[in-house]
Amino acid sequence: MRTHNTPRLCAGPQTAGTPIKFWNVASIGDDEGEITLYGDVVSRQPVDWWTGEPEPGLYIAPESFMEDLAAVKGKSNITIKINSCGGDLYTGIAIHNAIKGLTGHKVVVVEGIAASAASVIACAGDEVQVYPGSMVMIHGVAGLLYDYYTLADLKKLQKDFDASERAIAEIYHAKTGIEVDQLRSMMTRETWMVGQEAIDNGFADTLLTDEGPDVTLSADKKVLLVAGIRHDVKGFRHIPGTIPIDNSIHAAPAAGNKHAAAKNDGPKKEDNKTMTLEEMRAQHPDVVAQIEQQAAETARTQERARIEAIDSIAASVGDAQLVRDAKYGETPCTFFFFKQKTAYEIGVRLVGSEMCIRDRYTPCYRRAANVWLSSGMGAASQTGRT
User: What angle do CA 365, 378, 336 make, to 5 degrees?
Assistant: First the structure.
């Protein structure tokens, strides 16, 4: 029976190595500290599957957040500023508990939105302040499932989901005084609270009189722009219909990317004009030269990696011409394609029939695949996978 992966539970839409920090923990006085939390709550910094580079966007990750709290430990007054649509539940609870454990008086300011797991973090404040346009949203947990599951597996997952929702509801209960069953019903409905509504329900304590955040929604209701920060909200079902629609907002490549809201009180800036390559060379020659240099260095690095990857299994191929063509021929190929092509051609030679290799359900194909694996290439192809 195949094993399956235990899902990370999310209280918000989801999104290695040392994370790029999009939070800030700072001592701003002898007895005052400030924590700023913007972007998606994630269990770790997302990285590109192909390159290993950090994904663009604003993320709140736990890798070094806990250590950063040392800057405000012992402070009598701590301000926590939040603008987040949530994300990973376990990370949200961990950050909530860490902030809750600070000894000073903690004031949470919802500068834009505290949704889902971010609303859990907000409940760590001794006082929660909102602007008239600030939004707080609570809903049930969700998890990404894949692979094979038995009925017993799914029953266990149901219990895990239920326990997680109870944990969230208990945190909300401690803040609001609302009964847990009523809170869970509100979570099931995906409840949004704006400004005074958050106070009425006990999720906030003080309504700020200053000008609140600018909030707009894309026409497809997938991107929410709050105080200049983009949030991916395509996983939310009941976004308030009172939020103004901005047709200039396009789908974001990653949640949390900064985006300047379009203004209607003046002429459009020429900075946004699209330029041709020739215009770029004429107006910004240094920038173009730098981009081209970086592109050339990247290309050289990728080409070296491609050659080295092919060489790593060349001895198992046993066909020097095939290896040379893959590396330097008229149509050089990637390491992945080279493995597939090599397996195919070896299979044709061994089995003697191209037609049966194409049919993946024949004994011929299985025999060719087994020969390929036993040659050592199959083992090589697994190197580096987790």
Answer: 90
